[in-house]
């Protein structure tokens, strides 16, 4: 909401207070200020000019040589490139030595050999945004009214030296989404009186529109109040200059006097209005109802919208003519040929308006106010005011009746509190007279005494309904800076970390020790990416009201976001990326009633393991490098479990030949932890990555396994010994199969098993591989003899031959 200080000064006397002070005071009393801007402050020597002649430039097809009277005697010769400049116009002229937008200085000079003493300006060159410049002047200069006094300062004529305070209104303070609401706020803050005219509505209430309009409301829950006013014989044209300027300062593009009046009233009252071309209402009826599923409405932006039963529509008795509270319909749009205007002033169910606006992406000044609430007591007045303005500035005649249905309960809300309650909540020692002063400044009628008082809340402050709201109002107006600061008397107890917190920290430290950088990625993702990478049977959780389509779903895995981070870094020449994240994922499971969340650990590694140096080549990554990282994490987790990997060929977006599921075995049960593997080449191409490896495991599942009891043993007194076994096995026999067979067959002091050689080649044969293992033995109580070792190795050898068809070499 952009507030003009000149406009607000008409409602409450704050013109003698600097805009910066107003902004600071409002920020400290609960309404955040985004900034203060003054378009006219940097402008200089810009005047009204009268175009006396326009000739073609002798050396440029798109330039004109103009003689312009600027009130200084002889006309100024100015070269202008605007396509819409013409004789007789009143225009904006920047004289030599003037300053325009961005402090640009205009000098006397020559354009294509022709002298030019100044510049004819557009509104954009004065500082107005292109989005608010009237469309008729969007590609050229702005033409002033014919009564503009030649030679007068444009800064004064257009009231440009006017600070604009931009407010960032929170949902609970929608009353400040209007000039009148803001005026009441400033009056309370500075203890001043508001001065506002009110349009009488009793005359309209005495009669209806008769046969001119039939009004009916299907559901008063969706449309609790609807007022319709008829203004006849209007002339659609440009609105008066002062109104256009006020709208542009507020960030709204002027269109014509009818539409501009509805927007002007919206800014002043905070009441959204809509103007129908009455003659285009086929049945001379207004009927509000819920849309039918699949019903089509062409809105003012000429887009056909497919409606659903959540949308409130305004119909002509049969067909939709407007999307209630959001946008009007194209078929009843005000045009230059419109003569009779029907004004809508209504109240709609905020929940339906919010859903409709977000569904169609139609966030507007009207939908914003309809979503957050309006002053229900001034709905009829705002409509009557708009009708009055149309009579004044469009030459229309206001029909003395109105059509209305109003089912609102306007009984004032009363809230009871006490002095002790207020002071107890704020930690203050305010007196009852100080409390009375606060509510007097707010213009809230108050009765009672210190033990119990009752505050009557005006309809313009619909955010106040409970005693805690009164506490907030007292704190705001009394001054947050006056409330004493004190710390609660709490005895500090160091309780340390929980086992779960310690476990997560341990994994963080371990990943960092392995050379990985931690990242914290966004928890929301888009519809296109939500199904990337394996997620098991988890279904993505969709937000009802997302910030954008790119952030519509809660992520079901961490790896997808890590790939985005890897892509971002490699695109900026950070080719070797090793990153990880410990965070939660969210999902619906097929048999769950509510969404679930689970903490995962995921890592992505791409690039080289080591770059090329003067004495060694670059070392590329492979599957086993990433497997070693994951194995280290599993081993350091200190769980009483064994881990194994199962090759998996059909995991989504993963390489079919270099991917495995990760499992833990404990107490005769297998627990699925996650997966490990290489990103599928086509998926890697989508992310502009080369060979990329990743894993993702459930930390909660891993943490849930029984913890291993760590005991310290003395150093062995006796030396160990080792034996090597080399064998040829079928290609499908895995390392895990061999380890399991050896461990099961060995019965005497086997301490460790190491794979030290793997060979595939011509001498082995197709479908075969040679693997060599070292078996370390250790007996802490005695020296191992060759006989004992030979006996154990024989048992291992026989088991490998019998169970795995191994050929011992």
Automatic annotation (TrEMBL):
Alphabetical UniProt keywords: Aminoacyl-tRNA synthetase, ATP-binding, Cytoplasm, Ligase, Magnesium, Metal-binding, Nucleotide-binding, Protein biosynthesis, RNA-binding, tRNA-binding
Cofactors (names): Mg(2+)
Cofactor note as given: Binds 2 magnesium ions per tetramer.
Keyword Calcium: no
InterPro entries in the record: aa-tRNA-synth_II/BPL/LPL, B3/B4_tRNA-bd, DNA-bd_dom_put_sf, Fdx_antiC-bd, Fdx_antiC-bd_sf, NA-bd_OB-fold, Phe-tRNA-ligase_IIc_bsu, Phe-tRNA-ligase_IIc_bsu_bact
Subunit structure: Tetramer of two alpha and two beta subunits.
Annotated organism of origin: Aerococcus kribbianus
Protein name: Phenylalanine--tRNA ligase beta subunit
GO cellular component: phenylalanine-tRNA ligase complex
GO molecular function, one term: catalytic activity, acting on a protein
